[in-house]
Amino acid sequence: MTASSTLPRSDRLFFTFNAVLSSAAIAFIAFILLRKTEGAHAGLEFLPALNACFNGLAALCLVLGYVAIRKRRIFLHRTCMLSAFALSALFLVGYLVYHSLYGDTKYTGTGALRAIYFAVLISHIVLSITVVPAALTSFYLAFTRSFERHRRLNRVFLPVWLYVSVTGVLLFFMLRGSAPESLAAPGQADSLPAQNP
Q1: Pure H helices in the chain
Q2: Of 4-8, 45-49, 107-111, 139-143, the least confident
Q3: Sign of torsion, CA 32 35 41 45?
Q4: Who contacts 77 (Cβ-Cβ below 8 Å, separation ≥6)?
Q5: pLDDT tens sequence across 120-179
Q6: Of 34, 109, 127, 172, whose CB neighbour count within 10 A is largest?
Q7: What is the pTM of this model?
Q8: What span, in angstroms and rounded, lies between the C-alpha atoms of 63 and 59?
Q9: Is 3 exposed, middle or buried (0-12, 13-18, 19+ CB in 10 A)?
């Protein structure tokens, strides 16, 4: 008997929906990030800073949500986690809008800082791919009252989501600190995508 055949029908339907939705989201994000832009300027240069705020607030909500569940404050936990997901979604929308208009901003740091920047960037990108499917799975398990599975998932996923949110803010400051003039001239391409968290 296969593992999939032991899952309830509702679980199989959800995991199929989640896989399709997450794959479509990743494909769309890749399309936006990899296509060439015309270097348009639409007066939205403030978006990277706003996106960093969304990431920072999401990280705060994740920490508060964790503290709340440790204290058995279920409603506050649920509110914090849903807020974190909404803030991460707002970040993603702002991120895609900015990159669709301006492309990537060149990181000009050198030496050890450049190596650290790209190490953080690559880990941030790779781990961020898991956020949508894992967050949806976490919510599904919670709302179907599969709390043991919910806890097992989030022992791994919560630190990942928190890392992605915190490093999003860190990358913003590293990128801006490396080249203050980039604030006035977005749209310079670099060799890796997703360099404007």
Answers
A1: 9-34, 47-70, 74-102, 111-128, 131-143, 147-178
A2: 4-8
A3: positive
A4: 65, 68, 69
A5: 999 999 999 999 999 999 999 999 999 999 999 999 999 999 999 999 999 999 888 765
A6: 172
A7: 0.80
A8: 6
A9: exposed
